[in-house]
Amino acid sequence: MKSFLSKVKTVFGKKHRDGPTSPTTALAASVVAPAHPSNHSLPTVALDADTAPKTGDVSCAVDSTSAVLDSATATPAAAVESIKAAVADVKIPGMETKPEGESKSIVADIIAAPEKAVESIKAAVADVKIPGMGAKPEGESKSIVAGLGVAAAATATAAAAAIGVAIPGMKKESTETVVSAAAETGVEPALASSKAAATLDALKPPVAKKIPIQHEYHGVKYSDDYHWLKDQSPKNKKPEIIEYLEAENAYSKAFHYDKTKSLSETLYKEMIAKINENDSSVPVYKAPYSYYSQVVQGQQYRIFLRKKDTADAVEEVYLDQNKLEFEYQFMGDVSVSPDHKTLAYALDTTGSEHYTIFFKDLETGKALTSETLEGKFGSSIEWANDSKTVYLTTLDDIDRAANVVAFTVGAASKIPRLVFHEPDSKFNVGISKTTRYLFIYAVSGVTSEVSYIDLTKEGSALKTFMPRVNKHKYIIADHGEYFVIMTNMGGKCLNNTLMVCHESNTDASAWTELTPYDPFRNIQDVLLFKDYLVIRAIVGGFEKIIVTPIANGKLTGKLDPIAIEHALYTANLHSLSHQNTKSNTVRYEISTPLIPSQVWEFDMATGTSTQLKEVKVPGEFDSSLYTLERIYVPIPETTKTEAPFNTPTPETIPVSIMYRKDLFKKDGTNPLHLYGYGSYGISIPTAYSAIQFPILDRGYVYAIAHIRGGGSCGKAWYETGKFKSKRNTFTDFIACSQELVKLQYTQHELMSIEGRSAGGLLMGAVVNMKPDIAHVVIAGVPFVDVINTMMDPTIPLTINEYEEWGNPNDKEYFEYMRSYSPYDNIPSDKQFPNILVKAGLNDPRVAYWEPAKWVAKMRALDVCRGKTQILLHCTMGAGHFGVSGRYARYMEVASDFAFLVECMDTQRRAKGLLA
């Protein structure tokens, strides 16, 4: 009861290194941008004992301490000189008098005897003017000690190291020394949350050890110093790996997350102010119930409800995700049986995308704990018509959806029975259902095959609709006695066409044309209703919803697009489970960068639309303050590529742009954030996203580059940005950045860029190719170790992604892929921008070791040159899509955007563009 295509995302877009990917889709899976502390040291925090902010808050409690702490942040040597000048000739109680030239050892004494140092420094600096600081008012001198206490592993260690002093007890393994030194000052240590804090030797970035190994590919040996970071065990990673990742997290926490906590909270509040915290979906009627869901202010997760169609009916909560006991919750399908008596839902509690299937008796309200299915299940659930059997997918050893199984609730056997097995490792399986059929899809990057079971006939055998043929992709839906087939006809109809056949003969020889192939119209999805066929297609870079009457396997009218009157928008059909296919009305949803959501119902018989719901931006939101534009960037002549079967391909790259009118100058002085993806044929939607407004309201331009490899301009756009044309994706992005500079939207020094997963590959590649492309880069769960990953068939997705990137076991593909692999092409003679890298320890799509190795190698090559910063943050309890819970996700994005704003503000001040 899901949609013809959207339910089985794997059919024309298999499971890959990303799911829905865009910061524009109301948060979705956003990762944002980097900040700019110095490369040398951690920021310290001055805390007044009486008015201390929360641990990690960087707002100084006492203004007069800020200068010395700022100097410590900028460079340990500056802090040392300040302390030397202040105490060189002062006798400090509890410490020996410092002979000339030895005042440097005071820093060592702070760590060696913190209980004495507190009183000693208070006495020493109470009335002494320290260079760069005002005189200490009575009672406030203690704040400098608190500041040093919080960063005992930070400022003290770095300052001492800068002047050549060894600090007693401060070996790498002596975390306890750090924690106790801070604790004895009465201040919580900023880094105490991670045992790895003490590895921040002299406050330099964590340095990953080098253990060179040799990979031999095509008879050539390639050295890999950081292969040791790879551990494929699902649990209990090697201790040295966890220690390194925790060191990176502690470093990024102290350098960025603690320092920008106040800014992060501000950005978070601004984002939340742009969402409807209380919201309900449009009810879907499944007699005798209306089903819908809600989110409630202050709660992280969705609540699922239903209500009978009787006058005295009361609202029934059948699943409240907020009441589940798991810390991390990634919900898959939530599905009620056809008789409305049993609930089944799929839940991933680690981010590994291994789902557990839970059942609940909706008549008693009790969980059916004896029926719970644990293991490696997929997220899909489809009920059979008997309301007792569910169809599920299961994963193999490399996390490939390889099987379809059936499980009967209440049966004696608790072991699901195998319905379908896919032996070819290039293929994943997926399922969907209509009233009559269960469809099973086996899909690779370029080929598909559909099998089906007639659920209305007991004991019906599984049938293959049409045996797979290499490079032929198709998908089917039933309409009475006929099947409608959306197909690329083996590639000849690259943008897909529609065929039809009678159920009695499904062989390709019996297919007839339902509508003529239009190479300028990329058909994305199809829904079938009582008397109408509905198509969602991309035409001219925009989504169109097209309706036409159908009867007895033939179209009986013309194709009419529904009018959508927006300059930039995203249009989606609601899935079959949210449609009444026995009627002649279709539900669709529109979103624009300024309108969160409009749900419409279109009467296909009368040609009229009725708005069922509109989600508005809360508060006094004035959309007229903002401008939406789309520009078209010429494709560089040297990268123009012919698509298969001479399919028409645009000669310009669309770029969607948004900015606030009163803050935009178009003289090159506005900062600009450019987002890109460009893989798997995925279109980055121009939809509403609350996360954009905090930077728009700070004068930023927000832009999306709809580059080749993505699907914004149809299948030809995708095909000319994959395989041996993959570099077009990167050159397109660079061309867009240069055009934006040329048109004076910004300048490279004021640009930030972002991409995640395969978009993280984009970030790594363009930074290698043009290191000065931007001042800030955000790379979320980046696919950057292309060769080593694609040469290892034991890693999830490797084999079935041969049909996306190419098979590097073929030397020609190997050389081409190696030419752009970010990990293999880091220049040693260039300075990189500030880079924030995000990873997830449980990520099954882009393993944590890829970003970890990339960061380690960039650091070893000193790409920052002491002027920029590279930070790695690995979420230790989540996977590819980050933290769970809507507020937690917004907080994560806000923290990342704080890095972007902090970096850019520093740059703008340096250029005299910000006070």
Describe the overall structure:
GO terms for molecular function: serine-type endopeptidase activity. Residues 205-614 form the Peptidase S9A N-terminal domain. Residues 693-905 form the Peptidase S9 prolyl oligopeptidase catalytic domain. The protein has 915 residues and is an alpha+beta fold. It has 18 helices and 40 strands. Helix 2 (76-87) crosses helix 6 and helix 12 packs across helix 13 (758-769). The chain is globular, with a radius of gyration of 30 Å.
Query: Which sheet architecture does the biggest sheet show?
Result: 8 strands, antiparallel
Q: How many whole angstroms does the radius of gyration measure?
A: 30 Å
What CATH architecture of the domain at 213-272 and 621-910 would you give?
3-Layer(aba) Sandwich
Give the N-to-C terminal Cα separation: 57 Å
| CATH overall fold name of the domain at 213-272 and 621-910 | Rossmann fold
Query: Strand-residue fraction?
Result: 25-35%
User: What is the 3D form?
Assistant: globular
Structural class: alpha+beta
Q: Using DSSP, what is the number of strands?
A: 40
Give the CATH level 1 class of the domain at 213-272 and 621-910.
Alpha Beta
Average pLDDT, rounded to a whole number, is 83
Helical element count? 18
Relative helix content: 10-25%
Give the assembly state of these chains.
Answer: single chain
Uncertain stretches of 5 or more adjacent residues:
1-13, 20-202
State the fourth-level CATH superfamily of the domain at 213-272 and 621-910. Answer: Alpha/Beta hydrolase fold, catalytic domain
Domain Peptidase S9 prolyl oligopeptidase catalytic: 693-905
Family: Belongs to the peptidase S9A family.
Pfam families: Peptidase_S9, Peptidase_S9_N
Protein name: Prolyl endopeptidase-like
